[in-house]
Amino acid sequence: MENNKLLNNEEQKQPISKKQKRITAILMGVVAVLLLLLIIFVFIVSPATIYGESMSPTLIDGQMIMISRINRNPQINDIVIYKKPTENKKVIKRVVGVAGDTFVLYQDVNNYKTLRKENSDMIFPLSANQYYFLSSQYSKNKFTIKIGEVFTIGDNYENSVDGRDYGAIQIESIIGIKIN
Q: Strand runs (DSSP E) across the chain, as ranges?
């Protein structure tokens, strides 16, 4: 009789052991998936939320986008997130100039100021402060983007603090490039 009790106890322990193994396997699978997602979102792609109006109407305040963290080769018209050179703040802007591109500052007879990209139809309005900043930074009202730099401007020209206010940025300051 005691042997029967012993057998019953062992039989009862076995299903619990299988159950524990199943739970452990499920938990390990969940941990592996979470770890994989963490690696993807930290090193490969990640979501970003748009704050402000500097990129409207292309991107609007509160909109979520995905950025590539591995692409470090921005091209013209790419939208990039980077650390602003003048402060530790992340901003999102459009690349309008890459290494070798030349920009020229113009001021017409009506005192209207613009920034024009040579050999292109790209013309950007400048405030008096932006014109003064750029003309004081670059001699002969002309500058060429250096290797390892890009020039960025927000799509909402009137409501954007961008390259017109602080010049070209270092590619290494780019956090990610918007995935289309």
A: 45-49, 64-68, 79-83, 90-98, 102-107, 113-117, 123-125, 142-144, 149-153, 169-170, 174-178
The whole-angstrom separation of Cα 33 and Cα 2 is 47
Nearest to 105 by CA among 77, 89, 127: 127
How sure is the predictor about 142, in pLDDT bands with cuts at 50, 70 and 90?
very high
The encoded tokens of residue 6 equal: 């012993």
Q: What is the pLDDT of residue 86?
A: 80
Residues 6+ apart with CB under 8 A from 128: 113
* Residue 146 DSSP class: P
**Closest Cα to residue 107, out of 133, 141, 143?**
141
Distance between CA atoms of 177 and 32, rounded to whole angstroms? Answer: 27
Residue 66 CB contacts under 8 Å (≥ 6 apart), including other chains? 45, 46, 47, 48, 178, 179
* Whether residue 47 has a cis bond before it, omega within 30° of 0: no
Joined together, the tokens standing for residue 30 give 């969940």
pTM equals 0.80
Q: Do residues 70 and 162 lie in contact, with contact meaning Cβ atoms separated by under 8 Å?
A: no
